[in-house]
Known about the structure:
With 455 residues, this protein is α/β, with parallel strands linked by helices. It has two domains: 3-247 and 435-453, Glycogen Phosphorylase B (Rossmann fold, 3-Layer(aba) Sandwich); 256-433, 3-Layer(aba) Sandwich (Rossmann fold). The protein is 42% helix and 13% strand. The chain is built from 20 helices and 13 strands. The chain is globular, with a radius of gyration of 22 Å. The two termini are 13 Å apart.
Amino acid sequence: MANSEEKKHVAVFSFPFGSHPTPLLNLVLKLANAAPNLQFSFIGTEHSNNPLLISNPHIPNTIKFYSISDGVPEGHVPGGHPVERVNLFLQACPHNLQKGIDMAVAHTKQRVTSVIADAFVAPSLTVAQRLNVPWVAVWPPLSCSLSAHFYTDLIRHRCNSAARDTPLDFVPGLSKMRVEDLPEDVIQGVGEEETLFSKTLASLGSVLPQAEAVVVNFFEELDPPLLAKDMKSKFKYFLYVGFLTLSLPLPPLPPSDTDGTGCLSWLDKQKGGSVAYVSFGTVVTPPPHEIVAVAEALEASGFPFLWSLKEHLKGVLPSGFLERTRERGKVVAWAPQTQVLGHGSVGVFVTHCGCNSVFESMSNGVPMICRPFFGDHGLTGRMVEDVWEIGVRVEGGVFTKDGLVKCLRLILVEEEGNLMKKNAVKVKTTVVDAAGAQGKAAQDLNTLVEVVSRS
């Protein structure tokens, strides 16, 4: 009985790359709000923790941050490919993760009673097993990509020499997907070339069933029912907790004159549903010839456009492009994306299919033109086009002037585009309802609170 009175201490391991830390912290904030008696130790690297602390100044005192090594040996300078840093981080696990646990226990004077981790930090399972505490895995991308990783062995066996357009109709809920949509790590075979990161992802089919719960950054109401049913059959708890990067329903737009980028004021002057908004997120950088193709398409199409383009890439734009399009186009180094997508003037979002961007577009009812680049982008783009029918992918998978003009006209002018807009509004309604008190996400969050509270 004495043990049941013990204060619960949850260690949280973030995957310190890309946009992964943000949804994990937002999940912890939800848990801390729902169960103020829980103590959380959020463990990441200094590089991943600092931005979270800066952008979240009012974190409750039940959440403490601890920074561990990024695994890069002293004096070593990683090459340009980001996977090298990921491999070095994973190589330093689980010894490095245990150091984080030791710091948290020494500071709080409380033993860890459960572990929540980004599923990409699979070695955290070993740490939880050593501590003899429950392990909860969090999957930040779409659940369809989790299914693809779960079935990696089967997919590799069935699709070893399959054509790129071969359907994945042997995986429950993924019949609309094609081999070409799969993340690189799923389809490439086992061999000396396989990275530690790829091996980690390929192991998820055997690792994740050992979790007390698997949590996804998504709404069950948006998934193919067969996929949801299959995933639920594989795990003790498979919990949909909604979009972890957004507060729903979205707040009303702020006064346009408070937007320092000038985007909202500019959008105020455009016709409703007429603007093409273009952005490829913070990680993706399209090759120069595709940036040129986008510029040429925007100029040739005649549609008003707002383009969030990194400052150093403006030099790639065709000579005179900014001057020639000044009357109907605006190019900025950064845009308040959620607010831009919530503005009535925006009619289509040209995106790389990062899940955060897609979630923001869905929540605002804006159809999309998708150009997937890597990882789960292809699966997400297929969901947009063929499952939810709220957008199109660019022909051939790369930007060309004629291909993008065709997509812009399809959505902004043609009847097929009107159907996509109607579908996008329906999806927005589904999202708002799913995020409400009666949605499954609220129930699943309560279940997660119970899981970590009773450990």
